[in-house]
Amino acid sequence: MQVGFALLMEHVTEGRDGKLSLIGIFDEIRSRSVPVTFPRMFAAVRLLARVSEGSEHTVQLVIVDEDGNEVISKSPPLPVRLTPTGPTVPMSAEIVAEFVAVKFPRFGDYEFNVFVDGEATPLASVAFSVQAIDD
What is d(CA 122, CA 127) in angstroms, rounded to the nearest whole number? Predict the structure, then answer.
């Protein structure tokens, strides 16, 4: 299994045709002070797999600081079903998660991690940071 994309953004919408519109993709949050509460953010992930890897999987999401401390606790296992998209194209599934009022306790580096099927190592990690606004 592999990741087609994993992104953090300010907003996401899904059209009637199933296409995602990703708005305000970011890798940095800027603030004058900490702790800072980010009011609303989204994560979008596309998983890709060969038929031989199966279509039924579970995904867990978590946000951690640079020391590995959970800022958003690891989610319970979420069922994901990958679907075929064409004879020569891998199966795929898209996951969109909304996070509300995420409190970042300090400036520094953070990661949004995606775990699949209970593995100890994340399949995808999105690095981002909380930075001080320079006056």
Answer: 12
